[in-house]
Amino acid sequence: MKLKIGTRGSNLALIQTRRVGDQIKTIKPEVEIELIIVKTSGDLRRKTKGSGIFAKEVNQAVLDGDADIGVHSLKDLPTRLPEGLSLVSIPERLTPNDVLITPNGARLSDLPSDSIIGTGSPRRRAEISHLRTDLKFKKIRGNVDTRIRKVESGDFDGLITSMAALERLGLEEKASQKFDFEEVVPAAGQGSLGVVGRKDDEKTSFLGEISDEKARLESICERAFLRELGLGCKAGAGVLARAKDNEIKTLAVLHDSEGRHLVKLRGSDPVELGEKATREVKE
């Protein structure tokens, strides 16, 4: 059986997709994997409304039958999928913390006033501003490798990215500082991979077998928070769920005109917990 996997063409996306392919081969060694490279609106820098600019075209390829499944960084995947698609597997989650990369290894507290930090994320900008009110922010383009080069060449004084991305690229040593979860609350799904497939497709029904149960529970909780919030990745909001021993601990943050609102909750039902975190962080 041949399985066509839709993916973006960046180095990180291909590493992630090949990782999923390897996991599939461990349980279905007879499957022949074919990668289908898809250029997304985000890659082409098109001006599009709404979230999912790095996922839309990959999902459409699955709907159209050009690919059987699509592999995404889960944080890039909208909480409401197109009709006919479902999230069929959460294969793994690496370190979800955000990190700072600087040219000389300086930590956030060491940076001079007016240092320029590269990030296009409202969440990261709001969280870093909470820690340092005297820094400047500028959008930074390109994949992770390109962004790091821009910092090392002096175009930026620092870059905020995820530790999971560095881990997958083998660049962990580039991190100057790993932020604690309460300092910088991650994006929903950060560090996790998400596999999308067509609903009720017998060909891909086995993919639940490669799902990581802990990552699956955490993603359900975090995506429930984001879905209830209704703001998508453009919001100054973050959430992290950690599942252990039949309990889920959740940390959520929201920035608004009144400041930074942080809540900590625990429970056992991931959807109820995520939705409760939304209600409390908005109070």
UniProtKB/TrEMBL annotation:
One of its GO terms (cellular component) is cytoplasm. Keywords: Porphyrin biosynthesis, Transferase. Residues 217-281 form the Porphobilinogen deaminase C-terminal domain. The modification S-(dipyrrolylmethanemethyl)cysteine is found at residue 233. It is an enzyme of class 2 (transferase). It holds the Pfam family Porphobil_deam. Residues 3-204 form the Porphobilinogen deaminase N-terminal domain. The keyword Plastid does not apply. GO terms for biological process: protoporphyrinogen IX biosynthetic process. Binds 1 dipyrromethane group covalently. It catalyses: 4 porphobilinogen + H2O = hydroxymethylbilane + 4 NH4(+). Its EC number is 2.5.1.61. Belongs to the HMBS family. Tetrapolymerization of the monopyrrole PBG into the hydroxymethylbilane pre-uroporphyrinogen in several discrete steps. The porphobilinogen subunits are added to the dipyrromethane group. This is Probable porphobilinogen deaminase. It comes from candidate division MSBL1 archaeon SCGC-AAA261F19.
